[in-house]
């Protein structure tokens, strides 16, 4: 049986927010070139939709990280599973991530990327769970603050499922498989 998923943020609201973020980013980076770093896999849907709403020239690169820990809490020790293809030297870089939860992943990653001498480095996240924060992270562009609930959709998974949902949902109950 399928899991029951309730809608937390509708497709319309997510898309409207991404359009807004795209407009804000386009204004802020006017006259510049923006290098987007998509954090795989969760950031991929958000990155694509956001990139389409940005009007300044954009390039894309991808990075996959994994933090040691169990399903619900990250240890803060982050391993780079797939590194960027291109240099960040002199680039205006914007990291695009699905969600900031404990903050440990980005708290680790931002200084690592700063060492690669970008011209600027900012963070854009679709979702933020402020109640869960354990490590300091500045989110420069944010979609939504959400309560401490496990969400899926728009790139976010539950055991690798539901990334393709066009809305943000909460897995209510798991049926017998
Ligand atoms: P952090 O290091 O705790 O901020 O970890 C953030 C990562 O944990 C995100 O990139 C997600 O991959 C994952 N994550 C955190 N909360 C959720 C959630 O509610 N649903 C799905 N994945 C989540
Ligand atoms: Mg992630």
Short description:
The chain has helices at 11-28, 44-52, 104-114, and strands at 4-9, 34-40, 58-69, 74-82, 92-100, 120-128, 141-145, 151-152, 168-173.
What's the structural blueprint in terms of helices and strands?
Blueprint: E1 4-9, H1 11-28, E2 34-40, H2 44-52, E3 58-69, E4 74-82, E5 92-100, H3 104-114, E6 120-128, E7 141-145, E8 151-152, E9 168-173
Parallel strand pairs: 2-3, 2-5, 5-6, 6-7
Antiparallel strand pairs: 1-9, 3-4, 8-9
The chain binds inosinic acid and magnesium ion.
Average pLDDT metric: 94
What is the C-level CATH assignment?
Answer: Alpha Beta
The end-to-end distance, rounded to whole angstroms, is: 5 Å
CATH architecture: 3-Layer(aba) Sandwich
Largest sheet data: 6 strands, mixed
Number of helices: 3
Instruction: Please count the beta strands (DSSP E, at least 2 residues each).
Output: 9
What are the segments in which pLDDT stays under 50 over at least 5 consecutive residues?
none
Query: What percentage of amino acids are in beta strands?
Result: 35-45%
In total, how many domains does the architecture comprise?
1
User: Would you tell me which CATH topology applies?
Assistant: Rossmann fold
């Amino acid at each position: 049986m399928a899991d029951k998923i309730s809608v937390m943020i509708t497709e319309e609201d997510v898309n409207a927010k991404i359009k807004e973020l795209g407009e804000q980013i386009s204004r802020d980076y006017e006259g510049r070139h923006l290098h987007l770093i998509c954090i795989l896999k969760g950031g991929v849907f958000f990155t694509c939709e956001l990139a389409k709403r940005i009007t300044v020239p954009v390039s894309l690169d991808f990075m996959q990280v994994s933090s040691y820990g169990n399903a619900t809490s990250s240890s803060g020790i982050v391993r780079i599973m797939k590194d960027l293809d291109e240099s960040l030297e002199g680039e205006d870089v914007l990291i695009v991530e699905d969600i900031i939860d404990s903050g440990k992943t980005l708290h680790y990653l931002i200084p690592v990327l700063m060492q690669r001498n970008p011209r600027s480095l900012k963070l854009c996240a679709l979702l933020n769970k402020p109640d869960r924060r354990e490590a300091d992270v500045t989110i420069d562009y944010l979609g939504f603050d959400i309560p401490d609930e496990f969400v899926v959709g728009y790139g976010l998974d539950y055991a690798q499922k539901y990334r393709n949902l066009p809305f943000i949902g909460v897995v209510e109950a798991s049926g017998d498989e």
